[in-house]
Write a structure and sequence with these properties.
With about 140 residues, this protein is mainly β. It has no helices and 9 strands. It has a domain of about 80 residues.
């Protein structure tokens, strides 16, 4: 079974994975990934919360070069440009992450997207790793 690159940030391998964030008990701000202190008011009253699986694409671009270290994916001629988007999850938070689509012509402002997990790399021992991405969704995000 594949392993998650960052298992602490989502509920995968659940069938309907969700990102794990934190909410401040003092001011109500939400952060992703989980934070020990609130990024808005600095209070230490953070508790874990599951973020919505579906959201709205509010900005995107295509990254045409491999990320820097500790990136372990394809490089050189094996590298494929990938989409990066800013997804608004309800009125809770905006999360930046990879998209399954890298063609800007197929992306639209306000289009619904949902969290998915896809295979990413396989190491020398044959262990494959997976990472979360947002993909276009047929369903509108919850309001």
């Amino acid at each position: 079974m594949p392993k998650a690159l960052a298992p602490e940030i989502s509920t995968w391998p659940d069938d309907d994975p969700q990102l794990i964030g934190s909410t401040c008990g003092s001011c109500g701000a939400t952060a992703f990934p989980v934070q020990q202190r609130c990024p808005k008011c600095s209070a230490g009253e953070m508790s874990q919360v599951l973020l919505p699986r579906r959201g709205t694409l509010v900005a995107w671009t295509t990254q045409g070069f491999p990320p820097g270290p500790p990136y372990k994916g394809p490089t050189g001629k094996d590298f494929t440009p990938f989409g990066v988007g800013l997804v608004e999850l309800g009125d809770v938070i905006r999360v930046e992450g990879r998209l399954t689509e890298n063609d800007p012509a197929k992306l639209e402002f306000g289009m619904p997207v949902e969290l998915t997990v896809i295979p990413f790399t396989t190491d020398a021992t044959g262990t494959s790793s997976s990472r979360s991405r947002s993909r276009p969704s047929r369903e509108d995000p919850p309001k």
